[in-house]
Amino acid sequence: MKWKTILKFDTGADGFLKMIYVLAATAVVVLVCGVIFMTTTF
User: Fold this and answer.
1) Per residue in 2-39, pLDDT tens?
2) Nearest-CA neighbor of 1 among 30, 25, 17?
3) Are 9 and 22 in contact (CB under 8 A)?
4) How far apart are the first and last CA of the chain?
5) CA distance 42 to 38
6) CA proximity to 19, closest of 29, 27, 9
7) pTM of whole model > 0.70?
8) 12-31: buried (b, 16+ CB within 10 Å) or exposed (e) per residue?
9) For residue 18, which of 1, 33, 32 has the smallest C-alpha distance?
10) 38 CB-contact burial (10 Å; exposed 0-12 / middle 13-18 / buried 19+)
């Protein structure tokens, strides 16, 4: 992954969509990890 391109907020629709995709992917990963943690703990 190119972290520089992700962390740098590009002006325009492309940069905005890229940030939305990154945030959505992060949210999915956090949710999956949370579900796995809950199911394995309890």
Assistant:
1) 555 545 555 566 777 888 898 999 999 999 999 999 99
2) 25
3) no
4) 34
5) 6
6) 9
7) no
8) eeeeeebeeeeeeeeeeeee
9) 1
10) exposed
